[in-house]
Each structure stands twice: as C-alpha cells, then as structure tokens.
Design goal:
By secondary structure, the protein is mostly helical. It has helices at residues 9-28, 32-57. Helix 1 runs antiparallel to helix 2. The longest helix is centred in the middle third of the chain and has 26 residues, at 32-57.
C-alpha cells in the first residue's frame, strides 16, 4: 500500500523509530540477526530525516513559475504556457 501524503517527514520518523527500537531490542538480546539489519535501517532512517529537514528548510514558500523561468521562446505574453 502506498501512503500518499504531502509531507513525508511523518513517514521518515516512523522508519527511524521502528529501526531504532528493533536495533536496541537486538542489542539487549545479544541477537546480531536482529541488531545488524535494523541498525542499517536506523542509520538509513536517520539519513532520510536529515535530508528531509535539510531540503524542507529551503522549501518555505512555493513559487509559481514565471515567464522568465520558461526556456521556450515566445511564452512571455502567454498565461500558464497556453
């Protein structure tokens, strides 16, 4: 199932928390078959959160493309490229 949301930070947090909890469980139980793969999942979840917050900070406002942003000549006087 695909979870379609506009903000994916929520999903990144759950990936990180799930990986961390199973990693700690594997460490406490001295089970490398649980700890190692979930340790990688914890690290990847942390990386995903870092990337999310890094790129989310630059996306404070959404800008509409203007005619100056167009690479096609002759679209300066048109509305939305039509």
């Amino acid at each position: 199932m695909v979870n379609c949301v506009e903000d994916c930070g929520e999903n990144s947090g759950f990936v990180f928390l799930c990986g961390t909890s199973w990693f700690v469980y594997g460490l406490l139980g001295h089970d490398p078959f649980v700890a190692v793969p979930n340790g990688f999942g914890c690290a990847l979840g942390a990386l995903q959160l870092i990337l999310y917050f890094f790129y989310k900070a630059g996306d404070t406002k959404k800008q509409q493309p203007t005619a100056e942003d167009s690479v096609e000549p002759g679209l300066e006087n048109s509305v939305n490229g039509v």
